[in-house]
């Protein structure tokens, strides 16, 4: 006779236990959803940038559609550097082409090479002329030889974007090879890394290469010198045209001077003598 009350008690206990267990499931689900981004990717520094939704949409009959719209990441649109941004990254200097300026900055940032250094190399190599060709067969803004261009993925040496990207990749390779030593990397860009290695990781005793390293180092220092902007003499549109017509002075000849001038639009440019 006492068995029935015991069964009733056990039945009530089972019902209460089951109800409590079911109520606990949403809590577990909420905790796991909060931890969904706490994973190995983010702990290793991987960051997915997205624009958060400003306002959650109003709830309507199609709840699932609203949730998808509210939580779907919005793509981050790439915005090319503006006039002010390019001036800052190139310390106020320009090649005379906003497009080329932008390519220099983008290639430099992609490859971890200071855009001002790429600008300095380009001024000596081609005087910012996209179709410049040397008597040795180097072509384009960064004066890439055919073998170097192929080595760093450049198909068209006269395409400004490809040419600058190839030059930036080559400089990154040289800087890595010579442990960040800029003069040695410049010597390698001019004479080839093999020549620098043959002379025990020093600037080869070639007059042309030594003059090249001296010139680029001077340009690079000038670009980063605040006095260059303050001392720059303004030039007229006629003088600008004469500057654009200049060709690089051969490195077999000692360059007397290089200085900065202020263009009519306020930007700076290098001029060599």
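^ Assign residues to that structure.
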């Amino acid at each position: 006779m006492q068995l029935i009350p015991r069964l009733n008690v056990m039945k009530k206990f089972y019902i209460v236990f089951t109800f409590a267990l079911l109520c606990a499931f949403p809590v577990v689900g909420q905790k796991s959803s909060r931890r969904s981004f706490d994973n190995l990717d983010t702990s290793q520094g991987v960051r997915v940038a997205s624009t958060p939704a400003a306002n959650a949409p109003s709830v309507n009959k199609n709840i699932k559609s609203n949730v998808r719209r509210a939580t779907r990441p919005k793509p981050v649109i790439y915005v090319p550097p503006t006039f002010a941004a390019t001036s800052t990254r190139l310390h106020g200097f320009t090649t005379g082409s906003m497009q080329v300026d932008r390519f220099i900055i983008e290639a430099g940032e992609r490859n971890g090479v200071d855009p001002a250094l790429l600008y300095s190399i380009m001024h000596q190599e081609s005087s910012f002329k996209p179709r410049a060709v040397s008597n040795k067969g180097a072509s384009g803004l960064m004066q890439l030889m055919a073998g170097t261009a192929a080595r760093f993925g450049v198909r068209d040496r006269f395409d400004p974007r490809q040419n600058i990207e190839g030059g930036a990749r080559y400089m990154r390779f040289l800087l890595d090879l010579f442990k960040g030593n800029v003069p040695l990397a410049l010597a390698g860009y001019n004479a080839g890394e093999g020549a620098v290695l043959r002379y025990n990781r020093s600037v080869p005793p070639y007059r042309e290469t030594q003059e090249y390293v001296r010139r680029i180092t001077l340009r690079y220092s000038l670009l980063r010198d605040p006095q260059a902007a303050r001392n720059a003499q303004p030039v007229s549109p006629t003088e600008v045209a004469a500057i654009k017509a200049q060709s690089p002075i051969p490195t077999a000849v000692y360059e007397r001077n290089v200085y900065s001038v202020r263009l009519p639009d306020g930007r700076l440019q290098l001029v060599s003598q």
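The beta strands are 233-234, 258-262, 268-272.
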